Amino acid sequence: MPEKRMEVANCARTEVHGQWFVTFDVAMQGYVITTVDAPLMSGRILWSHAAFHGFRDFDPKEKTELEAAVGRILLGEAGLQIEGDKASGQCRH
16 in a domain, yes or no? Predict the structure, then answer.
């Protein structure tokens, strides 16, 4: 049986009234199977409050894998933001 391979794409984090949210697409075999909108709390996805636009039947292991992939993307964004701030001479704390 072939192993399922999920990929995260189009990941974005936004802040609304002090609350952070993440939106991302989940793709399998090159096809988007769902878009997830979820609040973040302490850097973790609140799956119980997540809105799924498409497939929603992820098991706990798959949710953990998706959360790790989103985390890597968001950490990469933070690294790019820090590098951009250094290049512009700005520093954010």
Answer: yes
Q: What is the pLDDT of residues 32-71, one digit of tens each?
A: 999 999 999 988 999 999 999 999 999 999 999 999 999 9
Tell me, yes or no, whether 69 lies in a domain: yes
Determine the pLDDT at residue 91: 33
By three-state DSSP, how is residue 28 classified? Answer: strand
In angstroms, the CA 30 to CA 7 distance is 8
Sign of CA dihedral 13, 70, 7, 57: negative
The domain containing residue 33 runs over which residues?
6-88
DSSP 4: P
Domain annotation covers residue 1: no
